[in-house]
Structures are given as C-alpha cells and as structure tokens.
Amino acid sequence: MLKKILKSYDYSIITVYMLLCLFGLIMIYSASMVMAVQYYGYPADFFYQKQKINLAIGFLFFLFFALFPYKAFKSKKFLVFITIAAIFGLLAVDIFGHATNNAQSWIQLGTRKIQPSEFAKLSVIVYLSAVYSKKQAYINQLDKGVLPPLIFLIFVCFLIAMEPDNGTAFITFLIGMMIIMCSGMRLKTIFKLSLLGLLLAAVLAPIVILKSDKIFTDNRIGRIYGFLDPFGTGQNEGFQLVNSFLAIGSGGLKGLGLGQSVQKLGYLPEAHTDFIMAIIAEELGVFGVVFVLTGISFIVLRGIYISTRSRDPFGSMLAIGISGMIGIQSFINLGGMSGLIPITGVPLPFISYGGSSILVLSIAMGILANVSMFNQYEEKYKTKNTVPVPRTDRLHEGSQDKRPWVNLK
C-alpha cells in the first residue's frame, strides 16, 4: 500500500518547489549581505541563515501535509478551528502587532515574527473549498449556498486591509473570487453575485469619500505618483522603482555575475524581499529571470492541471486556489518591480526573504502534492480494477437491465 502511494506522488512539482527555494536562498544571501552589515550591523550571512532555518521548518511542514490525507481538512471541527484561528490572528495584530514599513502586520514571538495575514490566505482557500464542495446540491442559491462563505471572505479581507496591508487583502479577495468562479456555479448566479457586489460598492462609496483622508494616506498616494511618474519623483516616491529599472537594465542578457550587483549596495530598498527579482535580473540577466518565471509558471500550470484531473470537488478547488495564490502573488510582485502596477509590498513566492511566506507556501505545496497523489493513486489502482455496481433496486422482478456490464458472467 505504502509503495503504491509513494509511486503516485508528483515528483516533478516537488522538485521544482525545492529548486526554487534553494535558488531563492542563494539570491537572498547575495542581495542582503551588504544591507545586513551596513544598516543593521549583523554578519553578512544573517538573513541567509535565518531563511535557511525558515526553509528547514517549511520543508518539515511540506512533508507532513504531503503525507497527511487532505480530505481530513474538510471536517467541520477543522474548518471551525482554521476560521477562528485566522480571525483571532488578524485581530491579535491590532493588539500585539509590530509595525514595519507603515503596516502593523506582524506579531513578535521571541526573536521571530509571524504574519497572520499570510496564514489567513491559506485558511480562506481551505475554508471556501470545503464549504462550496459541500454545497454542490444548492450551489446556485444565493442565501444558502453562496453568501455565507462570501461574508467570511469579505470579513477576512477587511481585517487585513485595516492593518493596513492592501496588497495582501487584494490577493486574498482575488483568490476567493477564483475559487467561487470554479465552484460549479452557473453563470446566472455569478452575474447576480456581480450585481450584488456593484450594489455594495455603491453603498460604501459615500463612506469612502467621507473617510478619504484616512483611506488615501500620503504613503498610498505617493505610491501612485511613483508608479505614474517614477523618474519625475525619482528622489522620493519613485526612488525604489527607478533603482529597480536600473538594476534590470544593467543586467542585460547574461547579467553582471552572481554577487556583483551595484543596486544592492544601498541604492535599492528591500532588495532581498519585494525587489529580489531586480537583483536576479542585474546579477544573472535574462537567464536568471527565465529560470524563476519558468519554475513558478510550471507550479501554477501544474496546479491547474491537478485541479482538472481531480474527481473530488474539494481537491479540485484546493488545487485551483493554491495555484491561483501563487500566480496572483507572483504577478503583483513582478508587476510592481517592473512598473506595470503600483508597488504593493508583496513578496515573490519561494524567492523573497520571509518566514511566514515560505511556511505558508510550503504547507500549500504539501497540500497540492497530496491532492495530486490521490488523483494518480485513484487513476492507477482504483479505477483500473473497479467494476461498476448495477442499480437493481429500481428494476422490476424478472426485467432485464440493458446496461451490458450487468449481464456479464
């Protein structure tokens, strides 16, 4: 039995996950060593060593969730636990939170910090996938099948936005919408839901206008100005984006060489976190960028493929939610550092420095590998030897069923 299960694992997705994490570890050391010494007075390998511990812990969680049957997450007790834990964690940020970069998103636990909003994203994926998979019989009833889980999603996004962390709140909302779109609802139901959303937006519009001074702070408006005119605001709002452009342009095809970045010498803020791809482009050129994009694209597309192959609605929605989380977060990070969208402060999956991020991604990849394993196991060993069971309870005595397998001897 164990041998059959091990043969069913998707080792391609496990290999790509590990390669991206190891590549990110190398680039974190290269991007952070100058900042660690000059700005913090730490050893040059400070962030490298911390991320190495993060990866070790994350890999243990990956193994656990890759081996633990994902269908157990559908139980009512587990769903109650993750919803309470997600809400409590987000509320605890307001009380015990640690502010960094104008956002109170972290809770200090000894020498380490955790970011509850990262775990909330995964909680939303599991909760929505489980609830909508159970509501398939009445998935198109707004009051009973659609709105209750949607209210939880909106409440979680609201708590994240209050930190404030609009980037993570936006990602979480998009993930939820993706799961809802793939839950099996009819287009008519989705259209009604869209109209309800527009009505809610119209109701909230006056509140947004009245509280515009608190919602549209100088920091948020500055990011818009920096996005619209980075070189015109290059000494303030556009400073980070301009230096990102310089790093990307300096790398060219082959790059300046590993460890040879100029922008990481204090010119590009957050070089080892949100803007690590700019350092990759500068040091390793197009080849480094293509390596990262290929790996992330493979995981996203593989997740979508796993979703389409799953016979279990819960597993299918889990896979689409996880691949959507990685794809959306990657787009927002890369869009910000390349000037396609305003900067949001979202890390690049598997590559950027961050303990909470890599832990959540490792758990998500373990669940994805587990869903894939169950798919392949059922296809190889269950359906191969399964004989359809005839429904004889509705046949009259003496009648003959026309289904060919019923009369086989």
Low-confidence stretches: 387-409
- Treating each run of at least 4 consecutive H or I residues as one helix, how many helices? 14
Number of domains: 1
Helix content: 55-70%
Mean pLDDT score, rounded? 83
> Strand order across the biggest sheet?
1-2-3
Count of beta strands = 3
Q: Give the overall form.
A: globular
Order of helices and strands: HHHHEEEHHHHHHHHHH
Largest sheet report: 3 strands, antiparallel
| Percent range for β-strand residues | under 5%
Structure, explained:
Peptidoglycan polymerase that is essential for cell division. It is a multi-pass membrane protein. Keywords: Cell shape, Glycosyltransferase, Membrane, Peptidoglycan synthesis, Transferase, Transmembrane, Transmembrane helix. This protein has helices at 2-7, 11-38, 46-67, 76-96, 116-134, 142-161, 166-181, 187-210, 212-215, 218-228, 239-251, 276-309, 313-338, 355-382, and strands spanning 97-100, 103-109, 112-114. It has one domain (2-382). It contains 14 helices and three strands. A hairpin with a 2-residue loop joins strand 1 (97-100) and strand 2 (103-109). A three-stranded antiparallel beta sheet has the order 1-2-3. Residues 387-409 have low confidence and may be disordered. Helices cover 67% and strands 3% of the residues. The chain has 409 residues and is mostly helical.
List the helices and strands and how they pair.
Blueprint: H1 2-7, H2 11-38, H3 46-67, H4 76-96, E1 97-100, E2 103-109, E3 112-114, H5 116-134, H6 142-161, H7 166-181, H8 187-210, H9 212-215, H10 218-228, H11 239-251, H12 276-309, H13 313-338, H14 355-382
